[in-house]
User: Fold this.
Amino acid sequence: MNLSYRHDGDTKVDHQAGYLLHQRPFKERSVMVEIFTHDWGRVGLVANGVRKEKSRLAGLLQPFQRLLFSWRGRGELKTLTTAESAGVVEPLKGSSLNSALYLNELLLRLLPRHDPHPLLFSHYHQALSQLSEGSEIEWILREFERDLLQELGYGLNLSHDIESGEVIEPDAIYCYYPHGPVRLEDQQEMDGVMTLKGKTLMAIASGEQPEKEGLREAKKLMRVMLQPHLGDKPLMSRTLFQPVR
Amino acid sequence: MGFSPAIDRLIEALRCLPGVGPKSAQRIAFHLLERDRDGAKTLAQALTDAVEQVGHCDRCRTLAEAGRCKICDDAERDGKLLCVVESPADLHALEMMSGYQGKYFVLMGRLSPLDGIGPDDIGLDKLAERLNEGEIEEVILATNPTVEGEATAHYISEMVHQRNIKVTRLAHGIPMGGELEFFDGNTLAHAFRGRVEV
Assistant:
């Protein structure tokens, strides 16, 4: 890693490990890319001359590839100077690819630019590796969502009942309020409030994959917890998981 | 300093062309007005005609006049083969080069959730109708070798599989006349994985 600030406020960063999250066409021959890097968090770059015949960068600047980015410039958008491969990755296919797109959409929507999250970067790196190995997709996504919320400062309380202060018990039913779980008395009916078993909370905390019902509860919990941060606009990558007609 | 209002409007209007900035727009405007007024009239007429008459083919969605494109109308072409492409430009490239004699379906885009483009935005309901007609025996996926193109191909392949129709995808490989040492790792890795017996 090599970074330096020049006296005029110009940033110059060389060989920064990162992933491309998204690219969109910019002007006639260039693209605007959003990258997620180890030391600089999310960064917006302009990559000039990528959309012409014979551009060597075009094949590299794709999501989910381990890359080394170099850029410079001042202001919000920097200019990409080079990108090199940091190792070829088995391409993602099918639902693993859709899931990886979902991770990228979450990062684009929730991470502000220039806010370093090295820990989240390793979680992302790990999630992509697991997706390409074909591990259980649902659980990879849940773990990433948990880590993402944690890193953004909205970490879930998964260990204690927030009212009684007691440790979560596996077989008790809990209602999850924005700040944490509260144990429900037996037979208590709760309409329109999200409830889940203690062991699901424990599974999310430990990272040990639960049974089917637990997976379903965890998915619902994460959806509810992410919602306030995502706003009204629905996540488009979720539509890729809907059954095809 | 501005020019006369009509010239300003022309310069502004020319800037909607891709790759044309203020300077080029001004150069084009003066060229047309000073040297080629006939050409300018022809251009204006051609633009008006095209914008008024060109719509989408009701079978394959490509740009076409009169509701149906030439390829869909051509009884000589093989209706059992359907090639799915992202854009009319892709269709044109395949037509020029590949000797393909089947029909096409043009998505006019690709699945790109991060740009807000989902399955409903690329005419997949129409594609489903085409598949349900029962004539098609093979669907050839010719979306681009990008992540979005791959996601699109996967989504469509599921639609096609459901109907027990054969699906194929264009091969990823190294371009003709290239030199291995200059390719990026992804292209090489793809080509290596897709090697064929000779």
Observations:
- The first strand of chain B starts at residue 54 and ends at 56.
- The two ends of chain B are 68 Å apart (CA to CA).
